[in-house]
Design goal:
Number of domains: 1
Number of helices: 12
Number of strands: 2
CATH class: Mainly Alpha
CATH architecture: Orthogonal Bundle
Helix content: 55-70%
Structural class: mainly alpha
Oligomer: single chain
Distance between the termini: 74 Å
């Protein structure tokens, strides 16, 4: 074990993280490329995702792969780092970065796919929550960290977590990083996406209507259409 890995173990001792060689390396990767507020949010995402799983009777290591859950959590916002800032929405950029890195580490492709799905779907609660626990609990944990709704935490647990992983204005930092990336690369915030909505709120620009979008598609679906008459005329 390296000195950096020893330091990680010392810092987070007492919190139920699933330390393996791979999770330690992933933690060091995320801590090295992300802003502290985003990294702390990612680590808390695992703790809250695990807690929410336990409320459903899901046991780490028995009902789901605890290492994969942690990998999805700790890397789920890697797309908001300079290293992960590509030309797609940040969730997809982060999923691709994680998949490439995990493949380099020798993780089997079927496990890499689970982590990719967990990261790529983490903004789509209604879909992710219906997937396997390693995917569903990433989304649940990330949401709980930003707006804790659902089962109440044990007394003092949030204080214990925040003492080690302070919030550092997490929601505000996430917002500014998403918007900052998208203002620089507009393709990262397509209309009707979450990132697109955040950019719209900042710029006050209006989105095209459904009709305006598809009038430019070239198929002329609105030519001669009579909505009140129920169809084409």
């Amino acid at each position: 074990m390296t000195r950096s890995e020893d330091d990680v173990m010392d810092i987070y001792w007492g919190l139920p993280f699933p330390w393996t060689e791979l999770t330690l390396k992933a933690t060091l990767l995320a801590r090295g490329i992300e802003q502290p507020a985003i990294f702390n949010h990612s680590m808390r995402t695992y703790l809250y995702g695990r807690f929410l799983g336990e409320q459903q009777g899901l046991r780490p290591g028995a009902d789901y792969d605890d290492e994969l859950l942690f990998l999805g959590c700790v890397l789920h916002d890697a797309g908001l780092s300079e290293k992960g800032n590509g030309d797609q929405r940040f969730d997809l950029d982060g999923a691709d970065l994680a998949a490439d890195w995990l493949t380099e580490q020798g993780l089997p492709s079927e496990k890499v796919e689970v982590v990719w799905d967990a990261i790529a779907l983490h903004l789509h609660y209604e879909i992710a929550i219906r997937k396997r626990p390693e995917i569903a609990l990433v989304t649940a944990g990330a949401g709980y960290d930003l707006g804790p709704t659902g089962p109440a935490l044990p007394d003092g647990y949030a204080d214990r977590i925040h003492a080690v992983l302070p919030r550092l204005h997490a929601a505000a930092v996430l917002h500014d990083e998403i918007v900052g990336q998208a203002l620089d690369k507009p393709q990262k915030a397509p209309p009707f996406s979450m990132s697109g909505e955040l950019v719209r709120q900042v710029t006050r620009e209006s989105w095209p209507t459904w009709k305006e979008l598809f009038q430019t598609a070239g198929w002329k679906d609105y030519d001669g259409y009579d909505a009140e008459g129920g169809g084409a005329v």
